[in-house]
Amino acid sequence: MAAITAAIPRPTSSATGIWSWLTTVDHKRIGVLYGVSAFILFLIGGIEAGVMRMQLMVPDSNLIDPDTYNAMFTMHGTTMIFMAIIPDGSCLFQFPDTIDDRRQRRSFSAVKCV
Length: 114
What we know:
Blueprint: H1 18-22, H2 27-57, H3 66-89, H4 101-112
Helix pairs in contact: 2-3, 2-4
């Protein structure tokens, strides 16, 4: 008697839309999430830089007060370095799947939700 060897069909993912992207454990999707969020935060840092440059465009500008300018200067640096450049540089899309998927998911949540 011959044994029948048939491949077991893979279950298809039923989650679609934004929820499937936010709860994924696929390293390629997590890498895309890193890239997209780094780009959005890069744009926010650029807006902060633009406001600071408008403040410095003319002498004695009253666009923002000095304390707000100092806070925005600090936030611009933090946004650009720690929320745009570093996550974009460690984007997991180009790397192979080397660590546990759930650990990757938690790392994205920890970086972007703090």
